[in-house]
Structure formats: structure tokens, C-alpha cells
Design a protein that fits this description.
Layout lengths: L3 E5 L3 H12 L3 E6 L10 E5 H10 L2 H5 L7 E5 L5 E6 H7 L4 E5 H12 L4 E4 L3 E6 L4 E5 L4 E4 L1 E4 L6 H7 L6 E13 L9 E7 L2 E7 L5 E8 L11 H12 L6 H9 L5 E8 L5 E2 L2 E3 L2 H4 L8 H18 L4 H30 L4 H16 L3 H9 L12
Length: 397
């Protein structure tokens, strides 16, 4: 009989892992607490290891359909005047054209579409208890069902329930970086800049806007905050109130943006944090993606990293003939140094991502514009774009 694997989380990491495991002959079940596949989220630049994994899965053409084909990253002042910019062509040159600007939901939905008819996906349920046995893991679900699996993988994000159940309170592993992030879609938004990623900043607050192909826009908001426990995490109405207060006196398009926020139905709101674990597995239970190695959005490659982790974990399980002890150790050994480099880089980047002072804003914008005018974009962003790691080659499927 095929080994039974339960994956908690039907997001990018979970669906990517399910795809590879199913093709290696595993019987895969995915459990997801949401009632349906999740949309929404912000726009990401997708390159590097994630792009390579997507190629191996034959999904590049599907993702290309959603590429926003961004030509410019533009910093504006309160009146909407350009003060600095980056020619995205320079970033495309750095990656050999292997980069796309995508709604994060497009990546998630492409991966879900690739597995929905091949594995058992159970929406509206979650894991409430995990008990290790001599031959597997007994799992209790919120629905009241109980079932045994050979392996359990937590791909359930920054606030992973699998991590909490096996390793303890998540606060001991979370490194809060001093910011919160929100994102939402604004249909029929009045301002448009096709193929441009526009951003406006004030001390401790930043707004990003991307125009979609229709008349909608996606907003990403990041703001500094000293505390990590006193903002609402599961209350959209309170989240909107917090954002309305914080950005009420902001310039640029803040008034129109907040008007669109009032009726938004896909608000994403969370801490900007990293997860640092002493180990990524215990017994027959392992973690992938943000559950064990969240780099934060400041790293700019969280989705791609999650896909690389899913590909590597599945490949190592197949190479080890199902020996999970050997496979889990190899998976972590291959990827931990890479993850830790990305996390360190993100921590160093935080101060320039959302500067907390006017001099900091000026310096960031000056650096961007100088690099663009002097054709130094590769020098400024080269270390962030180049992954400095090669994916392992596993059995051909």
C-alpha cells in the first residue's frame, strides 16, 4: 500500500508538496481550515528557485497568463510626482527573463488546480491533536473525525497549528520585525498606472499599488508598530478601523484607498515576522514553508522558497525509499543555510523597506534613483535576486 501522508494547509507550500508526493506514489490528503481555495493577497515578484520548480511542474505557461508585465517600480511624492524609479528590465536581465509579477493568489490557485483532482483535499477542517505511535501518527480533526497517517507535514503558515501542537507555543519561534502588513483588492479603482508598481511612503508607513488587467487595483500597506500582540488578527472590521486611523492623514491617494478599503472583502492582515526553528521535524512530523522557515515578505521570495522546500522534501523522501528520518534530515541540511541567509538579508533590509524617518525615506529614494540613473541596479539588487543555491536533481517522473 502507498504510504499515507497528511498535509496541513492547501496554500502554495502544501499544494506544491502534494503534487510532488502524489507523483512519487504517495497517498496524499490535504486538510485546509478555510472553506475554499483562498484568493486575495498582494502582488509578488516570482523568480529563482520557485520559477525552476514551476518549470519542472509544467506550470510556467499557466502563470504567464497572470503576469502583470511590470515595467517600472516607481516612487512618488504626495502629489503623485515621480521621485525615483527602477527599470524592471534590469531585473529581468539579472534573471535571464525568468521573472514574473503575479498576484500571489495566481500562484496558489495554479498549484491547487494542479492537485485538486489527484489528491484528497478537505476544506473547512483542521488538525486538533497529533499522537505519535510506533508505526505512524494518529490525527484528530476539528470535525470529530480521526485517522492514522504514516507522515504528517505542517504547511500551515506563520501561525502553524502543527508547529504549535508538536513544538509548543509559536511565540518562542517567532521573530517579530516591527511591522504589520495588509493587502486588499479595490475593484473599479479610479487611478491607473498599467505595468507600473507605484509606491508612496511616509515615516513608518508605506503604500504600494498595482493596477490589474481589469479596472481593479491591489494595495499593499506596511506600517511600523512596536508591539506584536495588541492588533486584531482575526477581525476584518477592526483591522479596517486600524488601517483607517493609521492612514487617515496620509497624502497621495490615501483618501481614495481608504474609501475602497471600506467595501473590500479580501483583506489580508498580519505581522511581519520570521520563524526560526531549532529543527524542522520531530519523528514522523515535519514542517515546510512559513511554518518553519518564514523569511517574511521583506525577503521577497517566500512563495518561491516554499516551493523549493516542497520539491526538496518530496525528492528526499523518494530518494530515501520512504525512510523519513533520513529524508527529513537531508531536506533540512540542504535548505537551512539558504533559508538563514535569506532571513538575515531580510532583517538588514527592513529599515530601507519602510523607513521610519524623513531622512531615511530620502536616503532610500536617492539610492534607488542613483542606481537607476547609473545603471547600477544589478549591484543594488544582485545579491537579493541571485539565489546562490542549486536545486537537487531527483528521480525523473
Amino acid at each position: 500500500m502507498a504510504a499515507k501522508v497528511l498535509i496541513s494547509g492547501a496554500g502554495i507550500a502544501g499544494c506544491c508538496l502534494a503534487w510532488w508526493l502524489e507523483r512519487y506514489g504517495y497517498s496524499v490528503t490535504v486538510v485546509e481550515q478555510a472553506r475554499e481555495a483562498r484568493g486575495g493577497g498582494y502582488v509578488i515578484d516570482f523568480w529563482g528557485l520557485g520559477y525552476e520548480v514551476t518549470q519542472k511542474m509544467g506550470l510556467v505557461d499557466e502563470l504567464r497568463r497572470h503576469d502583470l508585465d511590470v515595467h517600472e517600480f516607481r516612487v512618488v511624492d504626495g502629489a503623485g510626482r515621480r521621485v525615483a524609479s527602477i527599470d524592471q528590465g534590469a531585473l529581468k536581465a539579472l534573471t535571464g527573463g525568468r521573472i514574473m509579477s503575479l498576484p500571489r493568489s495566481a500562484v496558489a490557485m495554479a498549484l491547487y488546480g494542479a492537485v485538486e483532482d489527484r489528491v484528497d483535499v478537505r476544506f473547512g477542517d483542521s488538525i486538533t491533536a497529533l499522537t505519535a505511535t510506533s508505526s505512524g501518527v494518529d490525527v484528530q480533526f476539528r470535525s470529530g473525525a480521526a485517522e492514522s497517517f504514516d507522515l504528517v507535514i505542517g504547511a500551515d503558515g506563520l501561525h502553524s497549528s502543527v508547529r504549535r501542537l508538536i513544538f509548543g507555543d509559536g511565540q518562542q519561534f517567532e521573530r517579530f520585525l516591527g511591522y504589520y502588513v495588509a493587502a486588499f483588492t479595490a475593484p473599479h479603482y479610479p487611478h491607473r498606472d498599467p505595468h507600473v508598481y507605484v509606491t508612496y511612503g511616509e515615516p513608518g508607513r508605506q503604500i504600494w499599488r498595482v493596477s490589474l488587467e481589469d479596472d481593479a487595483a491591489v494595495f499593499l500597506l506596511v506600517f511600523a508598530h512596536d508591539g506584536a500582540i495588541d492588533l486584531p488578527m482575526h477581525d476584518p472590521a477592526r483591522q479596517k478601523n486600524v488601517l483607517a486611523r493609521l492612514y487617515a492623514d496620509s497624502g497621495w491617494e490615501a483618501r481614495e484607498m481608504l474609501a475602497a478599503l471600506e467595501t473590500a472583502t479580501d483583506v489580508y492582515f498580519d505581522r511581519v515576522s520570521q520563524i526560526a526553528m531549532p529543527a524542522w521535524s520531530k519523528g514522523r512530523i515535519a514542517l515546510i514553508g512559513d511554518a518553519c522557515a518564514c523569511p517574511s515578505l521583506l525577503a521577497g521570495e517566500g512563495s518561491a522558497m516554499a516551493m523549493a522546500e516542497a520539491y526538496t522534501l518530496a525528492g528526499e523522501l523518494d530518494r530515501a525509499g520512504g525512510d523519513h528520518v533520513r529524508a527529513f534530515a537531508a531536506y533540512e541540511q540542504r535548505l537551512r543555510p539558504y533559508v538563514e541567509r535569506k532571513q538575515k538579508g531580510a532583517r538588514g533590509f527592513a529599515a530601507s523597506f519602510v523607513p521610519k524617518s524623513n531622512p531615511g525615506l530620502w536616503l532610500r529614494n536617492f539610492s534607488i534613483e542613483a542606481a537607476n540613473r547609473l545603471n547600477l541596479t544589478s549591484l543594488l539588487f544582485g545579491s537579493q535576486i541571485n539565489d546562490r543555491i542549486t536545486l537537487e536533481t531527483y528521480r525523473q517522473l
